[in-house]
Design a protein that fits this description.
Chain A contains 18 helices and 20 strands. Chain A has 492 residues and is an alpha/beta fold. In chain A, helix 4 packs parallel to helix 5. Chain A is globular, with a radius of gyration of 23 Å.
């Protein structure tokens, strides 16, 4: 029913939405923000490392200022392409260049399905979303927990969740930067799952972690610990300021991107201060708020503009680019679809190499939806098909077929058609192309009904990906031991 | 509520989906189709003109063959840009270059609204759709009748419909090429509406007519009459082969486009044979069928591919490009939205100058929907906003605003925000950005409910655009006289 799993490539140049001089104007504004205003780094060790690297650290505050030359020099060591390794090597992914990858929704506190409704995230739904994502060939990696399993205490949640991600799925996994020990636990678990040692892990990035700036202009302690733990071990950091124009960034598109870019450059520079050459991805996430209510908005025209401009900036810096597949819809209606496709339009034409949240996100990230994951998998399938190469062979150009049919004929049933019709076109999961009469006879089903059916069908088709029982036992032993130790200290 | 009426511009380079050598491969295949297979032109006068121009006309059939050099020479006189005049000069449109324009749905036999359901097209609904389109600032011109008023006899339908389009709306109008006399009546009516004479009409294209090839490889008599009547008078012809890959064109994307391109080149060449320099638009309309059922499909990945490749071809030929905003949905659901946005993605990034059917089309063109027209107007509003220039002034780049707010602050209520928030972002018609709790309290409205409300609101806001009473009287007199004469002879 689905095309086979493979990582898509973009074979065309991404769009340069604005001229180069406007990209330079943003770049210069960002450098000025970094040199004159500066950014707060809340971790003393981060400030010490940055001072050592030549940044100006205010001794009386958390403020760090970067001379323009320092920023440009530091980011220059970030690699433009690299591979991330999955526990199943067939699921390794290339980041950068022409490659594209999609992740499922990450981190929503709530979850829903159309049968049981909306509820707080829990381990059962977390596991089922992981299972559903694992069945979908357009979910190439995990960008976080598809829903927060809030019934697990934060001290041990990461141990249970990483164990589930590593056993229920075979894709590249994400680990949250919520304090050094959580990153370190993830490192131990991926080493077991991949049966590799520290030196091999250093050569083969196998974990990805999103690090958000606290916009405007601040990096918090746990996020900085994540960079220090992961960049030093050559694991992948996705530096993603989350700036909503009009709220935590200026109300103008250019201003919001300039601030976002300053934050991103500071974060990327810090990864390279920690470990020159460490793999890092530039995360774009500038959207806008509804100026009447302050509500966040996604998949807007402004989101598309910032997604494409940010892509231009990342190409200037030679760093892989992360964007997002997002929407603010409450229902599985037209809005959910058009905001999602507009955000994909921005991401894909903007040159994103990895699109986070691309399957299952609703309500501006506050809810994961099983049915939305299916809808999005179909949208991503269409995008992936759009990215596939087109057959320009003699048979593809089809001169002989046109000649054989001639004026006034038709191509149904011709040998040229019969040889190719099975895979000629993308077969959608959801679209109902029946004529009105047939559609009406079958009870006028809307797209949502198909999504509900497909959730069940895909979950029923789920098979746990094979794992050597001894590896699984080691992983379980590690998880159980760390849980018995109390996991990570929390103050609640 | 809507941004003011204006024609959008695309300020970035459209996407080159495939490399130049693949565009050349299509071009060469098309020329080979035209020289070796040929195209049937069913009108003797057309064949005579083509023979005179150097084409090889088979004396025993309708077949016309074109040497490659002849095609290239003939199409070279087609202008790359021109203006189309509306009866209200503020609604004149530029075609080609960076300009973009959107039309409402054209020619469906059925119509629906969510209150009264689906029915056969009639004059009342036709008029209301014209009124609704007139209220929407993203409907820049008419691409045909927004629904067929089938309760009007075909002999006089064009007279009634053109009168309504010219009086209920002030936009550029389309006239069907369904036999010479209908084109001639349209010429007389636009001359009255614009109060211009033949020589001024010759200077100022004021009518647009879509001419479809009967794919594969055939031009029918009424369509050829349309070209002869309109191109000779310097009115705009949109040459649009309608090729569904797998049905009336090869099942391969490259083959379908090659055949489509051959048909388009032949049609464009014929407009230039009739009148070198006559304004002509290259209409792309290659989609695919569902290979299981044969049902036409729109807004598919293959549609996006053909839309972008066709755009590359039109840039090679230097002719303005028409694409379409389309879908095959039966309901106003997620499918209707995602197929529509995917088709807009293909059209806009492919470099289309005019997007037909962009507001109100459903069921693959078999139905116009009042609510879909509103949904699409919102989608087009988002696309138009995306195309708007971005403020890169000092205020736009917002360095001072970032400095004033500083790390950890927020931009709500700052002077920079207060000065700009009213127009900072596109205000959607339909999107509901409330949080889940507010949305639930208000009864969980889905997007369709908002569309229903908005149809009423926009129709209530309709005002007939002013027209000099004496002009209106002349127009009415012409229409009534031609109806009294029996209109155009039909055999039914």
């Amino acid at each position: 029913m689905q095309p086979p799993w493979r990582q898509p490539s973009r074979r065309f140049q991404p769009v340069d939405l604005v001229p180069e001089e406007q990209i330079e104007a943003i770049h210069e504004t960002s450098l000025r923000i970094l040199s004159e205003i500066g950014i707060d780094f809340l971790h003393p060790e981060a400030r010490r490392l940055l001072a050592e690297a030549g940044a100006t650290v205010d001794p009386d505050s958390n403020r760090v200022r970067f001379e323009p030359g320092l920023v440009e020099e530091r980011i220059s060591t970030a690699p433009s392409e690299f591979t991330i390794h999955a526990r199943n090597p067939e699921r390794n992914l290339h980041m950068g260049g022409d490659s594209v990858a999609f992740t499922a929704v990450a981190s929503p506190p709530n979850v829903s399905d159309e049968i049981s409704g909306r509820r707080t995230g829990n381990q059962k739904d977390f596991r089922n979303l992981v299972r559903l994502g694992q069945t979908l060939n357009t979910v190439h990696l995990w960008g976080g927990y598809p829903v927060e399993p809030t019934d697990l205490h934060p001290s041990i949640r990461h141990l249970e969740a990483l164990f589930d991600l590593l056993t229920l799925s075979d894709r590249v996994i994400h680990a949250y930067s919520l304090g050094a020990q959580r990153n370190i636990d993830a490192v131990e678990m991926i080493k077991i799952a991949r049966q590799i040692d520290d030196s091999r892990l250093l050569e083969e990035p196998s974990l990805i972690s999103v690090v958000n700036a606290s916009s405007p202009l601040r990096y918090d302690t746990p996020m900085l610990e994540g960079i220090m733990e992961f960049s030093s071990r050559n694991q992948v950091i996705v530096i993603t300021p989350f700036t909503l124009a009009g709220a935590m960034a200026p109300v103008t598109v250019a201003g919001a991107v300039a601030q976002h870019n300053a934050e991103a450059l500071a974060g990327i520079a810090f990864t390279q201060v920690v470990n020159p050459g460490a793999p890092v991805i530039y995360g774009g996430f500038t959207s806008n708020v509804d100026m009447q209510s302050g509500a966040p908005a996604f998949g807007t025209p402004e989101f598309m503009q910032t997604a494409m401009i940010t892509g231009q900036l990342t190409r200037r810096y030679g760093v892989p680019y992360r964007s997002s597949g997002v929407n603010a819809a409450n229902a599985l209606d037209a809005q959910a679809a058009y905001e999602s496709v507009f955000s994909l339009w921005g991401a894909i034409m903007g040159g994103a190499h990895v699109v986070l949240h691309a399957a299952g996100w609703m309500e501006g990230g506050l809810r994961a939806s099983f049915e939305k994951m299916i809808l999005d998998a179909d949208l991503l399938g269409m995008v992936q098909r759009f990215l596939e190469p087109i057959d320009f062979s003699e048979g593809g150009l089809a001169y002989e077929a046109v000649k054989d049919v001639g004026p006034g004929g038709h191509f149904f049933g011709t040998p040229h058609t019969l040889d190719r019709f099975r895979d000629a076109f993308y077969a959608p999961l959801i679209s109902d192309w029946r004529n009105f009469e047939s559609w009406e006879e079958s009870g006028r089903p809307e797209a949502k009904e198909k999504m509900v059916e497909l959730v069940k069908m895909f979950l029923d088709s789920y098979e746990e990906p094979p794992m050597d029982p001894s590896v699984r036992a080691q992983l379980e032993e590690f998880k159980d031991r760390r849980i018995a130790e109390g996991g990570v200290e929390t103050d609640y």
